[in-house]
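Appendix B, Record 12. Input sequence as logged:
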Amino acid sequence: MSPNGNRIPPGPKGLPILGIALDIRKDALGTLLRLAREYGDIVRFPVVRQDRFLLSHPDYIEQVLNIEQSKFHKSVLTKKITEPLLGQGLLTSKGEVWRRQRRLAQPAFHKSRINEYASPMIDIALSHMRGWKDGEQRDVAADMMAVTLDIAVRTLFGTTLTAQAQRVGHAMTFLMRYQLARQRSPIRLPQTWPTPNNRRSRRDREFLDSLVYGIIEERRANASSDQNDLLSLLIGAMDEDGSRMTPKQLRDETMTIFLAGHETTAQMLAWTWYLLSENPAAEARLHEELDGVLGGRPPEVADLRQMPYLQAVQNEALRLYPPAYILARTSIEPCEIGGYELPADSTILMSQWVVHRDPRYFEDPEAFRPGRWLDGLADRLPASAYFPFGHGPRRCIGQGFAQLEAAIVVGTIAQKFRLALVPGHPVVPEPLVTLRPRHGIRMTLHPRN
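Logged structural output:
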């Protein structure tokens, strides 16, 4: 029983049958933030006859993601949204399947191997800038998608994409919107019906499947002992029982890397450029650090330790606009959280968007202040008060890769260009599978020299 004598957490009643489904459909981020502010650290809210629970206290999040993580699985909600595209990859699998796949993939993300990726990351960032011109207006969100897709395919798959690259981005954007819209809609037409969206969904999935299976076959056909990209390691990896990944498992992991290996970092970079543009003092301080340490040359891994403000900019961008803005789990047995008893099969939500804006942990939480990370804030925060890459055993396996990639790309581009938001361009966060700018981020290029 909770301190106030209730066994059920507080929360809104919502409409009959629908609950607050329409509020979430209209403004998911604002609704989550309002629920936490109005009802507290654990909120019960109905969505189409199903109760969901929002946790916003670090202790409760720590309990679910780390201390008692074995009592919670990836939620059915997550699986419905992501599994049609990703299959049973690391992001969606559970239990022994997840442990086996994580064990096989882990060597590709060891720090020493990740550091080897820095050189191609620099080359790719420079190559994408070669066509940039003074005064040109570009959708930087789309540019960052192209850069990170190129990096992921080159470093993790050992190949390149040319004409298909743009279509990959369009297909994934559509499929994210399509799948999320279905889950948020009170009325869902069967996916077999030949509606325009259903037909396009099928075409885009078939295109991505064909592309991924083609990459796998190319890697198999050109396999050699000196290849150390992730896909080669997964193809050649043998588990303790002597088994290897099936073609379907390889497809699912490769598709997951398409999303997690470039999508999240692309959004992190896009939001970083937006925040720097809107905060000239922070941008000037970053430029001063880059110029002082690098003097115009591309950054190397060893340089990053000498650039704490670059790291602080990354931390603050991830705080305000975390690409992974929400996590969901399902309780596999009755549990007690915060003094409340939650039944088995409860859908439990934990939102980085909400917790990262909590004034109990972040002073002036809506402000972009990278300097807050320079005085040991990370060490003072409660566990799970800041979790842009998740937490516990299922923390993102690619965290080190993403952080290195973002530092290299920002350090390379920011020495050459200032990126200024086009006046009047609307920047609106769109909570899809990741947190995207709904209308892109149109910026004007200004060479620094």
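The domain at 21-447 is CATH 1.10.630.10 (Cytochrome p450).
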